[in-house]
Each structure stands twice: as structure tokens, then as C-alpha cells.
Amino acid sequence: MTMSNTGGRRRPPTIHDVAREAGVSRGTVSRVLNGGHYVSPTAQEAVNAAIRRTGYVVNRHARSLITGRSDSVGFLLTEPQERFFEDPNFNVLLRGCTQALAAHDVPLLLMLAGTEDERRRITRYITAGHVDGVLLVSSHSGDPVAEELREAGVPLVACGKPIGMGSKVSYVAADDRDGARDMVRHLLSLGRRRIGMVTGPLDTPGGVERLAGYREVLAEAAVEADDRLIASGDYSRASGEAGAVQLLDRAPDMDAVFVASDLMAQGVLAALHKAGRRVPEDVSVGGFDDSPAATAVTPALTTIRQPWDRISAEMVRVLLAQIGGEDPAAVILPTELIRRESA
Q: How many CA atoms lie within 13 A of 11 on its CB side?
């Protein structure tokens, strides 16, 4: 901190203090702060050292007036607020994106838009230039947010491939279909043949792809694909429990269940316990995500691991590249089968 000339009060260090400490001009300091263009390595190091010594913090508002950028990014979740607090995947992804952006000194703004009114308000806020780009999570088909932001020219990266938008929007996704195939093959390897599934929402890419992988492996193994063995869920614990109740009622000879999320699998385990079915002796259960929900139950879940750290890092990398002027990009990351006690 630098002492002011009046009253002995401390004032925040300014760009002039940094320039004086570094022995360079104010313009050189400004160029370093705005990307380091046309600055020698010696001068850049001197300025960076002076910033550390003085404790100078960039005035983001002042810089945004010059650059036309907000120097911040939005994390937009188009789900009801209670889902953010219930589903551990959202918190893991948010933490990873926050950490990846911190390495670039870019703050992240959390935006929850679970209703039509909230989506309209937040879309207006974003398109007014209050953030430089958006990390979009949980995009359902028919949700206009991604299309509206794209048409407005807002840099955007979705978590999962937005349905119906093709290559128009950047996205980062785990290989949902391949992960589902791995899980169903594993259940078949245990000798299970009446394998049920509780799907995710079928208006989301994960819901569609995981169901497709389930169907493909059963067809490959010449195992009957019985629609009575499929129940739909919405990734909530309650929908997993309700789905398992439906499956037990329609197919009491079911000997395994593939559940499209670990949180739903918690509900499936509860329903099986209430029905007197032992896991894994009577019914094997496999989840998807390898979220904290997978190890918070007994027995611990065999599941498909999504590489959340890599997903969040890639979302940030692709978004910052797009903010910098690069074209949209798509990244698909491999999943991994994690074996535990439930299957």
C-alpha cells in the first residue's frame, strides 16, 4: 500500500506507482496490463515485479471502458435453483471452471435461469455486454438461450452437445454413448440379462446418448430390448426412486439397472431396499458420473467416471479462445468404468 499525502491514510497503489517502481513509463505499464504487446521481456518482467511489490490491483471497470470488455465470464445453469444445490455435478463443474479462470485472472459470475422469465432477464443482461462469454450448463432442446446468445454474437461454450445446433455452438462433452456401452457390457459380463434403465431427460444430449448406448449393447448381445425395462428420469434422486418402482412393477424379474446419473441411482437403491431386493446379490446397479453421490451410499456405486476436471478446463480454454476471435470448437472426452460394490 502507498501512503497518501494527506492525513497519513493508506490509498491503493496506482498505475503511476507501478511505473515509478518499475522505472518505465505509464504507457508501458498499460501495455503490459492489456496483453504485453510491443513490450520487451525485460520491461514486462520489471512491471510484473513492481505489481507484486506494490500490491497493485487492476481497475477492471476502467479497463473495460478502454477495451470494451467486461473481463468476466458467466456460468449459466438453465435449471431450477434447487437442482443446483441437489446435484453435486453442478458444484464440481462450477469449482473447476472457477479455478481454471482464476489462472487467467478472470472472475466467474454464477447465473441461475430455471424459469422463462429468468432466462429472458439473464439473456438481456448477457447480450448487454456485462460478460465476455458464457459457459452454458444443462441445455434442453427447445431452450432458446443458446440460439439467442449465438445470434447475438456472444462467445459460448456448452457442457454437452446442444441438441439441434450442430457445429454452430462450441461444446465440451464426455463420451456419453461410449460410457453407457461400457456399463451395460459390464452388467452383461456379470451374467445379468434383464437389465433395466432409468434414463436422463430425453431432451438433453446426455439423456439421449446414454439411452442409445444402452440399446446398442443389448442389440449386440442379442438380449431382448424390452421397453418395460426403461423408465425416464430427470437426474433427480426422486425420479430415480420413482423409476425403479416402475421397473419393479413392470418387470419383477429385472436383475440389473443402469441408471443415467449417480444421484438417480441413490433413489434406485432406496427403492430396491424398500422392495426387499439385495444389491448386488439380487439386482446389480450401475450409475453414471462418479460424483460424490456414488460413494455416499451403501453399497458404493459402480459407475462411469466423467472427467470433470478436464471438462471444466477445456470449457474455459475453448471459451477464452473464442473470446479471442477463434472459431467454435467441439471437444469429446473419454469416460472410465469405476468398479465398486453395487455391480
A: 11
Q: In a 10 Å sphere around its CB, with 0-12 CB exposed, 13-18 middle and 19+ buried, how is residue 106 labelled?
A: buried
The string of DSSP letters for 229-252 reads GEEE--SSHHHHHHHHHHHHHH-T
Classify 134 in phi/psi space as left (phi over 0), alpha (psi -120 to 50) or beta. Answer: beta
Q: Band of the pLDDT at 168, cuts 50, 70, 90?
A: confident
Question: Does the pTM exceed 0.85?
Answer: no
Residue type, position 91, single letter: N
Is the C-alpha dihedral spanning 120, 126, 130, 134 positive or negative?
Answer: positive
Selection from 304, 273, 298, 299 nearest residue 286 by Cα? 304
What pLDDT score does 151 carry? 85
Question: For 198-257, what is each residue's pLDDT tens digit?
Answer: 999 998 889 999 999 999 999 999 887 788 999 999 999 999 999 999 999 999 999 999
